[in-house]
Specification:
- The chain is α+β, with helices and mostly antiparallel strands.
- About 55% of the residues lie in helices and about 15% in strands.
- The protein contains 3 helices and 3 strands.
- Helix 1 packs antiparallel against helix 3 and helix 2 runs antiparallel to helix 3.
- The two termini are about 45 Å apart.
Length: about 140
């Protein structure tokens, strides 16, 4: 049997929740900035490898603000390429260098996914902050 009693706690304090949305968003923005700095650093590391045709660049998707590390050919034509397109060529490199490229690709994948996840978390934190603000702002009175 389901109870039809209404539970009401009008004197319930929400003091502990005040400001949490803004703090969450600020902390998430800071983490996103750190991930994006790590992306830039990894891209710079690949430019330091001289004599090879593959480097990472930070690609910006303007429609949603996403940053992503993408492989690019260093020579002409300088174009983006998938890892699958260069993996066979990487296998022909000296073993230590080939391993470095594989580890770098793995790090790029991780940073790309972290960037997407933290951007999603930031959207949630912003939505939460707006919803809490709407709860605190009473509707305008009509006389």
């Amino acid at each position: 049997m389901v109870s039809a009693d209404v539970v009401s706690t009008p004197d319930l304090s929400i003091k502990g929740f005040k400001g949490k949305g803004a703090a969450w968003a600020v902390e998430t923005r800071a983490r996103l900035a750190g991930i994006r700095q790590d992306m830039q650093a990894l891209a710079r590391q690949t430019r330091a490898v001289r004599g090879y045709d593959y480097l990472l660049t930070v690609h910006v998707r303007k429609h949603n603000g996403q940053l992503a590390l993408r492989w690019r050919l260093a020579g002409r034509p300088a174009r983006h390429v998938s890892w699958a397109a260069i993996a066979g060529q990487v296998d022909l490199l000296p073993p230590a260098l080939a391993d470095w490229y594989r580890q770098t690709h793995s790090a790029a994948l991780c940073l790309n996914h972290q960037e997407m996840a933290v951007r999603h978390e930031l959207r949630l934190a912003e939505r939460y902050r707006m919803e809490v603000f709407a709860l605190r702002t009473p509707p305008p009175r009509t006389s």
